Amino acid sequence: MLEGKKTATKPPVRKAPAALGETVKDNEVSRRSFFSWLSLGWIGFVASTGGFFTMMLRFFFPNVLFEPVQTFRAGYPDDYIIGEVDTKWKDKYGVWIIRNREGIYALSTVCTHLGCTPNWLASARKFKCPCHGSGFKSTGINFEGPAPRPLERYRIVLADDGEIIVDKTQKYQQEKGQWSDPEAFLRV
Amino acid sequence: MAEQTKKSFLEKAAESQVWKSIFRGGGVPRNRRQRMMSVLNSVFLHLHPVRLPKHAVKLKFTWCMGGLSFFIFLILTISGILLMFYYRPTIEYAYTDIIDLAEQVPFGIMRELHRWGAHAMVITVWLHMFRVFMTGSYKPPREFNWTVGVILLLLTLMLSFTGYLLPWDQLAIWAITVGSNMARAAPFLGHEGPGASLLAIGDINFITMASDARFALIGGRFMGEAALLRFYVLHCIGLPFIIMIFMSIHFWRVRKDGGISTPV
Ligand code: HEM
Ligand code: FES
């Protein structure tokens, strides 16, 4: 690079060839303007290549996702029996709805160990993960196996008509103290 | 060769126009120089060194593990292309198409060949790396080829990882669920990783569940159709294409670095 620059600016040591010695005509490209065009060309090339790679990167982040809806209506509070874990939304939405004496909450069915789906064992009254054996109480608190933290809860609110709405885009983690958030637990 | 009077069929064929047009330089090579030229002048032969030191063909030294890796790669390429004629990468069909391939399509062993071959290639590539290490063949002037080798290893593992999802059975879905969850914890690029929360302006986080490394990998926030399609394209086109480029560099450098290293 440096070498190139030197020869570009230094006056020619040898006797210049006839064509260079002459003054530049209007329609000819001088040595100096050739190099500025060259650098412009390079800048343009690098910019457009960089631009294209940026486009390529952005291409992998779609604006519209064709994923199952993340918010669903889960019926009325009276549909849920106090003290029971309801598994009817597990397959479709990945949510357990549990009602206790104070209210209703929605538990995520994603094991906090490595993401498998535990099963509700009604007789043992616990969630048991088939992958590595983590166990969770009906509250979602982990008590056995490798899971490092409790199951997550989803936002649960009442619609105007009194129906329950579960919103999976908003999650609450016990270890962050988020279970006390008013929308993490539906008082009924 | 002493019998100049009667030409063999091969010699006659070698003088024909067809032969000469295909094999540059023409003629049957008769001396060292001509033999060398015929290797250098053929696109297929020139990938191979013109001359080999005797020790280089000793199984004891190379275990032929690099050569075996490449051989298995070729088998995987051919059987993989065959599988593509039946396999559809959608949640609806993926699993049943694999069953169909294994049980109904003639020579369903093609699917087993691809699966077992994939396992075998991962093993041979590791063993190849092990032998290169044990023979000290990573030392100058071969440091660069070692680095290319590391890239080849990663590409092999990525091919294995992406291919594993395609049958869309329970094993596959959960393996990739767990595997891609690791990307959540990537520094800065994963939304649960260290430093990700620093990439924010005020309340607006740039690295979220819908914009992090895991999202780019599986094309969504949850394991599903988009992940299957992404892995399929990477497995069948993207990664093989890239690995072939690096393999060419790898083989070329083996030759340019003076052939297989010499045992001390
Ligand atoms: C897709 C995977 C790979 C293929 C197809 C491949 C292929 C080959 C082949 C055919 C050779 C000739 C010698 C032999 O067969 O042992 C070779 C040599 C070599 N490979 Fe690989 N290789 C792969 C991965 C790797 C990896 C993972 C490393 C190390 C990180 C590596 C480093 C080297 C080096 C340094 C040599 C030169 C060895 C010498 O001169 O003795 N390769 N490779
Ligand atoms: S994923 Fe549930 S115990 Fe490992």
- Shape-level CATH architecture of the largest domain in chain A: 3-layer Sandwich
**What is the overall number of helices of chain A?**
4
- Residue share in β-strands of chain B: under 5%
Order of helices and strands of chain A: HHHEEHEEEEEEEEE
Write out the CATH superfamily name of the largest domain in chain A.
Rieske [2Fe-2S] iron-sulphur domain
Tally of domains of chain A: 2
Uncertain runs of chain A are: 1-7
Strand numbers in spatial order across the main sheet of chain B = 1-2
- Would you tell me the structural class of the helices and strands of chain A? alpha+beta
Please state the average pLDDT score of chain A: 86
- Number of helical segments of chain B? 11
CATH superfamily of chain B: Cytochrome Bc1 Complex, Chain C
Overall shape of chain A: it is elongated
Class of the largest domain in chain A, according to the CATH hierarchy?
Mainly Beta
- What string, H for helix and E for strand, traces the elements of chain B in order? HHHHHHHHHEEHH
